[in-house]
C-alpha cells in the first residue's frame, strides 16, 4: 500500500481551491488547514503574493483571511514580511485551554437529552478510528471532528463558532505536541468517559469531564513546552518563494 506524499513544511499543496462555497471562506479554511496540519509552523512567514499564487486566487481574499486570522490570534502582522504564524508560548497556552474547556462545558450542560443512537454510533466510530490512528495530522483532525460534534449537540451556533475559533488558535499547540511528544492513552480514555456521560443523559458530568480533559491536555502541553529550548516548538518555516511582498515580484 503506497503512502501518500506529504508536503514539506512551509509549502502550499498545489492546486486551486474549490469554489463550492464563498471564495473568502474557502481561502480562510485552506489557510487554517495549513496551519493546523503544520505546513506553516509557528514563526512561519505568510505572504499574500505566494499564497495567492499557490491557491489560484487574487490577493484580496487572501488578505481578508489573514486579517481575520490576525483578529483570532493565529497570525501576527510583521513589518516588511506580511504576516507570521504566532509562536507558541506557555503563557498563551495557559490562557487558551481553560477558555475552550469552559465553553465546551457550557455547550454540554445545554444538551437536554441523550444523543440519538445514530449520533452515538458515529461518535463511537470516530473515537475508535482516533485510537487506532498513528498519524499526528490525521489524529488531530479526528480529535477536532469529535469535539466539534460534541459542541454541535447543544444547537448554539454562536457557541460553536467561538469554540471553533479557539481551536484554530490551539491547533498550533496540538499539532506541534503530537509531532514531538505524542502521548495519547489518557486523552483517549477521557474521550470515552465524556461520551458515556452524554449517552447516559448526564450533561453535568459530561461538562465536568470536558473541563478536566482540557485541563489535563493543557498540563501535558505546558510540561512539554517547558522542556524544550524553544527551537523544537517554534521552528520557523516560510511560505515565501523569493517574492517581495511589497512588489509581488
Structural notes for this entry:
The chain is mainly alpha-helical. Helix content is 61%, strand content 4%. It has a three-stranded antiparallel sheet. A hairpin with a 3-residue loop joins strand 2 and strand 3 (82-85). Helix 5 packs antiparallel against helix 8 and helix 8 (185-199) runs antiparallel to helix 9. The longest helix has 24 residues, at 157-180. The protein is globular. It starts with 22 loop residues before the first helix and ends in a 23-residue tail after the last helix. Residues 1-10 and 230-249 have low confidence and may be disordered.
What tags apply to this protein structure?
249 residues; mainly alpha; 3-stranded antiparallel sheet; 9 helices; 61% helix; disordered N terminus; disordered C terminus
Write the layout of secondary structure elements.
Elements: H1 23-36, E1 45-46, H2 48-55, H3 59-71, E2 75-78, E3 82-85, H4 90-109, H5 117-132, H6 136-152, H7 157-180, H8 185-199, H9 203-226
Antiparallel strand pairs: 1-3, 2-3
Helix pairs in contact: 1-3, 2-3, 4-7, 4-9, 5-6, 5-8, 6-7, 8-9
